[in-house]
Amino acid sequence: QERGHETPVPGRVERGQRHQVGVRRLTHAIMMSHVAAIAVEMLALVAFGNALPSGVSKDSVFNIAGEATDIEFLDATRALVSTRRGQIYIGNVNSGNKETYMNVPDTDKFGEVGLLDIELDPNFGSNGYWYAYYFKKSTGKGRVERFKHEKNSGGLKSRGSTSGKLLIWEDTTNARNGPNGNGYHYGGQLSFGPDGRLYLSLGDQGEEDSAQDSYSSGGCIMRLHKNGATPNDNYGKSNVDECWIKGLRNGWRMAWDKTSNRLFVGEVGGNNQNTATEDIHVLSTSSGGDNLGWPECEGDCGYDKPVYTYDHNGKPGCIIGGVVYRGSSSAWYGKYFMGDFSRGWVRTLTFSGNSKTVTQITDFDDNVGRILSFKEGKDGNVYYTTGGWGGSGGVMRYNLPGANPQQPTDTPSSPGPTNPAEPGSCLAYGCGSYNANNECQCDGQCSGQGDCCDDYGPQCNNEPEPSTSTEAPCSTKKRHTDLAKCQKYCKKKGIKETGNAYTGKLKTKNDCPKCKCKK
Predict the structure, then answer these.
(1) Distance, CA of 282 to CA of 214 (rounded, Å)
(2) How are beta strands 190-192 and 308-311 bridged, if at all?
(3) Which class for 410: exposed (0-12), middle (13-18), buried (19 or more C-beta within 10 A)?
(4) Are strands 515-516 and 371-376 parallel, antiparallel or unpaired?
(5) Is the pLDDT confidence value at 34 over 90?
(6) How does pLDDT run across 82-133, given as a tens digit for each residue?
(7) Is 305:357 a contact under the CB 8 Å cutoff?
(8) How far is the C-alpha of 83 from the C-alpha of 97, rounded, in Å?
(9) What is the DSSP letter of 22?
């Protein structure tokens, strides 16, 4: 049974003729996605009426003045909460006390954009780095930027800092001057994958055809090195090196499940309430180059088949991708928590092992309000953030039976285990070792042989890391011995040869080492 508010939601604003589905797309959507949705909904829907499941309770953790877009946990009691207007709080999840942690400079809030997500570095305990996906008022562009955690005296006195600030990625589209200029369908969520790469879900930027346009970041899931370099094995779009997969209408929320090494992506559906579907896709590290199908169709329509999809049936819908629970509550272990912003519910999906087969859908909670994101806390419980568009929000907690806290993360920690060789890595070529805990994977004998050889940055060149830089690091060190890769790199970075303007026609592989960074 579908329930919820019949009000405008993120991504639901009509945008004229560009958003009307053509006859071919409409016919395909009706024939394919409707059948898929019915097939999924035929599974047993376990419902608890107005009550939560047995042993589960819910309480309010924080009240937030503004939409609470994300929550990140420092330890079992402290968390960071981001708001769309750019303010980040640090708070105690037990007492509810909070203080301002940082105001992300120059944040632009309009349409659906603003400060949309924050993500801790996998080695946050030792390096204190964290990342933000937000839009700058001075440029109108979305960007991923790295910031620093300053512990200070600890507790709620820790603060975010621009020391060591580093631009990881910036979009080429000004959201205010783009195809529609309304700031809709820019995603998005950051999530580190099991390969150590930083992933970012985007959307079609309010222009549906951009999801397939080989020159646009629209509709992509981006894949980046955490130092701002671009992996050389992204295959999403031929002219957007950072694009890993394409065809995504609006990836408002996605998250990696590190236990099964699978990426769960919530794709917000279209505006035609009679044909639109809300979809959950499950991807893996080998999914690079996949096409999720938008705007050709929605649901199960011949592209990447969603593991879960449901029809709008004449009512608004806005899926909020969630998390696979990996805490100590055995009753909920391995279940995927997801919700719907406009319908006000939370459901869980049960899978057959690590397959894409959904065996059970549980109607977990039908009174959640305007849900915006999920996160598993370090106390073993599940949290979600809320916020009506333009209104206030907060953080809620599901207290699960048997939940136990984990260890704190903002104190120095020992390096994690060395990762096994991945296809195309230096280790696979016998040229050294790959360790996701290292800042860069440089080995002169492996140049051009894999991603880990492309992590050139300040650390790789023994250069001091900039304290206030807003640009990605660029290197004077030879990047590739392969001429074609050298040309591509120099052209992309706008590098000029020493004494002569770069012409894009390097003649030999020895030309690239002569290139020096010149802005």
Answers:
(1) 23
(2) unpaired
(3) middle
(4) unpaired
(5) no
(6) 999 999 999 999 999 999 999 999 999 999 999 999 999 999 999 999 999 9
(7) no
(8) 16
(9) P
* DSSP conformation class of 404: -
Count CA within 13 A, CB hemisphere, residue 412.
Answer: 0
Q: How far apart are the first and last CA of the chain?
A: 57
- Side-by-side strand order, sheet with 129-135: 115-120, 129-135, 141-150, 159-174
Which ranges of 42-191 does DSSP label H, i.e. alpha helix? Answer: 124-127
Radius of gyration of the chain (CA): 23
Cα–Cα distance for residue pair 169/229, rounded to 1 Å: 9
Residue 132 pairs in a beta bridge with: 118, 145
**Higher pLDDT, residue 391 or 229:** 229
Q: If you search the block for the tokens 């820790």, which residue do you land on?
A: 158
Largest CA distance in the chain: 74
Residues 6+ positions from 31 with CB-CB distance below 8 Å: none
Q: Assess contact for 219 and 294: CB atoms under 8 A.
A: yes
Report the alpha-carbon angle 398-402-404, nearest 5. Answer: 85
Cα gap 64→77, rounded to integer Å: 18
Return all residues near 316 (Cβ < 8 A) that are at least 6 apart: 4, 5, 6, 7, 8, 9, 12, 273, 342, 343
- The first and second tokens of residue 71, run together, are 């929550």
- Residue 145's identity, in one-letter code, is E
Question: Cα separation of 337 and 362, whole Å?
Answer: 9
- The answer to whether the beta carbons of residues 453 and 447 sit under 8 Å apart is yes
- Please name which of 463, 420, 411, 423 lies closest in space to residue 440, comparing C-alpha atoms: 463
Residue pair 240/217 in contact (Cβ under 8 Å)? The answer is yes
Pairing of strands 98-103, 115-120: unpaired
Do residues 70 and 373 make contact, with C-beta atoms less than 8 angstroms apart? yes
The encoded tokens of residue 413 equal 């920690």
CB-based contact 497:511 (threshold 8 Å): yes
Lowest mean pLDDT among 336-345, 418-427, 441-450, 480-489: 418-427
Question: Please, are residues 66 and 387 in contact by the beta-carbon 8 Å criterion?
Answer: yes
Dist CA 119 CA 90 (whole Å): 14
Neighbouring residues of 345: CB distance < 8 A, sequence distance ≥ 6: 3, 4, 339, 363, 364, 365, 366, 368
On whether the pTM is more than 0.90, the answer is no
Alpha helices (runs of H) in 121-170, residue ranges in sequence order: 124-127
- Residue 360 CA to residue 316 CA, distance in Å, equals 24
Contact at 8 Å (CB) between 22 and 28? no
Tokens, residue 375: 């996160």
Please choose, from the candidates 331, 320, 324, 339, the residue with its C-alpha nearest in 3D space to the C-alpha of residue 376. Answer: 324
